[in-house]
Design goal:
InterPro entries: Pept_HybD-like_dom_sf, Peptidase_A31. The chain has one domain: HybD-like (Rossmann fold, 3-Layer(aba) Sandwich), CATH 3.40.50. Helix 1 packs across helix 5. The protein has about 160 residues and is an alpha/beta fold. The N and C termini lie close together (about 5 Å). About 35% of the residues lie in helices and about 20% in strands. The radius of gyration is 14 Å and the shape is globular. The chain has a five-stranded mixed sheet with strand order 2-1-3-5-4.
């Protein structure tokens, strides 16, 4: 049984689909998480937020991820998967990429188990709403995370 799982959503709510991680963690907070799990709005500060969560038993990250799929595609990855794609220029939608953040933290501390849910954006235009395919994917990711948490805390 994992002591504490933190679900972190990253993104910029002002840039349409880039805010998908924030939309997912807000949805999870509204739905209610199992005891021992918490949802955190990470904004665009991956290094700062993840660095403060190294004492968690497990971290689940949700972010927009340009992986080359159709808009709304959902990717379930590990930090090792991101490390393989670190040289891809379009992989991250933030200034300090998630692979760079995780690699830096791994050099300075022991990382807890991490699962990453990435959602392929349809667009990054200014706006507060998610595109239709990303909104559907956000709901699917929230359901997947709830299932992950139930498996973790019921074990």
């Amino acid at each position: 049984m994992v002591e504490r799982t933190v679900v972190v959503g990253f993104g910029n709510l002002l840039m349409g689909d880039d805010g998908v991680g924030i939309h997912v963690v807000r949805s999870l907070a509204e739905r209610g998480l199992p005891r021992g799990a918490e949802a955190v709005d990470g904004g665009v500060a991956s290094l700062e937020i993840l660095g403060s969560l190294l004492d968690a038993g497990r971290i689940i990250i949700v972010d927009a991820l340009a992986g080359g799929g159709e808009p709304g595609s959902v990717y379930r990855l590990t930090p090792a998967d991101l490390g393989q794609a670190e040289t891809s220029p379009g992989f991250s939608l933030h200034d300090f990429t998630l692979p760079q953040t995780l690699a830096l933290l791994a050099r300075t501390a022991s990382l807890p188990p991490i699962v990453i849910y990435g959602v392929e954006p349809a667009g990054m235009d200014p706006g507060l709403e998610l595109s239709p395919p990303v909104a559907v994917a956000a709901g699917r990711v929230a359901d997947l995370i709830i299932a992950d948490l139930e498996d973790c805390f019921d074990a």
